[in-house]
Specification:
The structure is a single chain. The chain is of the alpha/beta class and about 240 residues long. It is about 45% helix and about 15% strand. It has a single domain, classed as Uracil-DNA glycosylase-like domain (Uracil-DNA Glycosylase, subunit E). It has a four-stranded parallel beta sheet with strand order 3-2-6-7, with helices on both faces. It starts with 6 loop residues before the first helix and ends in a 5-residue tail after the last helix. The relative contact order is 0.16.
Length: about 240
């Protein structure tokens, strides 16, 4: 690259900046930061291997944005929408104890396979989140459960500046801003669209149903939704 930074370099630098991030949250909410947690060295090893494998160039890619990392998914591995067991095979890094297979990862990786495989897909897209750090809330029974940035009015209010800044920094990876793909056709899409009205990060935002909604509630229509994802990613109808 003749001394120039690659997409991998920029993503990994963003992750290092996230490691230093502190957020003010309402009582009962907390952050899961894989880049500054008890497994941060393993996360750094996994993410470094993954991004250098697929993003060691300066090609513009489109963003695919979920809402925020899941408590037992990306908030553990540091790589968006990647199942830990697949990552272990991809990077050679031992993620023993964290190999949690998730329906969301399974659906998305079927789409990736049909798109042309991982090298082709990751050559065209960067998968990430509107809120790149995991969020949990504590139930009245004392259990920690996943939550999204839009679930609580005060939470969203406190996170708003961070979310807009995080989007701006992710666009700076060298993103093709002609289209962005939003995983979550409800509140995540609503928020991202509202921010985009003011910031004009993307020419358009394409809403895609969340894989959890598909696999848990609409399993019989999985093929229909997979074709919708593939059509969108291929730019059909652009």
């Amino acid at each position: 690259m003749n001394g120039q930074t690659t997409v991998a370099d920029r993503i990994l630098r963003f992750n290092e900046e996230l490691a230093e991030t502190t957020l003010e949250l309402p009582p009962g909410f907390s952050v899961l930061n894989p880049f500054n947690g008890p497994q941060k060295e393993r996360v750094r090893e996994v993410t470094t291997a993954f991004y250098h494998k697929y993003y060691d160039d300066d090609r513009p890619r489109r963003l695919v944005l979920g809402s925020s990392p899941a408590r037992r998914g990306t908030a553990v591995t540091g790589v968006p929408f990647e199942d830990a067991r697949l990552l272990e095979g991809e990077t050679g890094v031992d993620v023993d104890g964290y190999a949690v297979s998730r329906p969301s990862a399974g659906f998305l990786h079927d789409v990736i396979r049909r798109y042309g495989g991982r090298t082709r897909f990751y050559g065209d897209f960067v998968m990430s989140f509107v809120c790149p750090l995991g969020l949990v809330r504590t139930t009245p029974q004392g259990r920690e459960v996943n939550c999204n940035f839009y679930e609580d009015k005060k939470l969203l209010e406190l996170l708003h500046a961070f979310l807009v800044d995080a989007l701006e920094r992710q666009v700076a990876f060298g993103i093709d801003t002609s289209a962005c793909y939003c995983i979550g056709s409800g509140e995540n899409f609503k928020f991202l669209s509202k921010v985009n009205e003011g910031q004009r990060f993307f020419n358009k935002i394409v809403a895609l149903e969340h894989p959890r909604f598909i696999t848990q509630y609409n399993g019989a229509r999985k093929e229909e939704f997979a074709e919708k994802y593939l059509s969108a990613f291929r730019g059909e109808g652009d």
